Amino acid sequence: MIGIYGGTFDPIHYGHLRTALEVKEAVGLDEVRFVPCRLPPHRAAPEADPERRLRMLEIALQDAEPGFRIDTRELNRPGPSYMVDTLGSIRKEIGARPLCLIVGMDAFLGLPYWHRWRELFDLAHLVVMRRPGTASDVLGELEPYFRERRTDQKGTLSHQPSGSIYFVDVTQLDISATRIREIFKTGKSARYLIPEPLRRFILDQRLYLSS
Ligand code: ATP
């Protein structure tokens, strides 16, 4: 079973890496594909260019958990990086194998703003990373989908190619790429928030110095 972990990764940090590992173990994924987006549709353009964000992913994933991979298809595709296009293209390659799109709770609740969001359920399961103890009230347009598709049975994910919603409780590490960029801008140390070789790369490249 393959998991897709999308993001800007500007830069990748331990919040991404740790949650990816916990989801991999909880769901029993064979592979987690980190998919850096070229142009995020719903937010400001990333600060680091696509080549450097890819390089940072490669550095962070050296000696990584087995099964962690990078998928560059969004970087190679012009225009906004819509997840529905990405999953469609992966689906063509993998046939009927189960596919899980890994998203944070915030991203999940914002799903109705995503391009052609209803089609996502035809292409993948949604695995939602939930902070333990937090509410998971789902309202509005998403609510009927949630009611119909939510499962507590992990087995459902491996027995069908797509269509279910499954929650995984993950350790919430209060780390964000925004905060890490801020740390570099102010000349403080990002040690222990990101892998050390990545920290050195960012310093060498003089990334995130200007706002
Ligand atoms: P930024 O601060 O620039 O918004 P970010 O740290 O949220 O960046 P992204 O690359 O945008 O990083 O994140 C991709 C996905 O990773 C998001 O869907 C988000 O839910 C998840 N994520 C990011 N940081 C964490 C974290 N500390 N714990 C759990 N999930 C996270």
Automatic annotation (TrEMBL):
Pfam families linked: CTP_transf_like
SUPFAM superfamilies tied to this protein: Nucleotidylyl transferase
EC number: 2.7.7.18
Coiled-coil annotated spans: none
A single MF term (Gene Ontology): nicotinate-nucleotide adenylyltransferase activity
Domain Cytidyltransferase-like: 4-182
Catalysed reaction, written as an equation: nicotinate beta-D-ribonucleotide + ATP + H(+) = deamido-NAD(+) + diphosphate
Metabolic or biological pathway: Cofactor biosynthesis; NAD(+) biosynthesis; deamido-NAD(+) from nicotinate D-ribonucleotide: step 1/1
Superkingdom to which the source organism belongs: Bacteria
This protein's UniProt keywords: ATP-binding, NAD, Nucleotide-binding, Nucleotidyltransferase, Pyridine nucleotide biosynthesis, Transferase
Gene3D superfamilies for this protein: HUPs
Known function: Catalyzes the reversible adenylation of nicotinate mononucleotide (NaMN) to nicotinic acid adenine dinucleotide (NaAD).
Family classification: Belongs to the NadD family.
Protein name, UniProt field: Probable nicotinate-nucleotide adenylyltransferase
Source species of the chain: Methylocaldum szegediense
The gene coding this protein: nadD
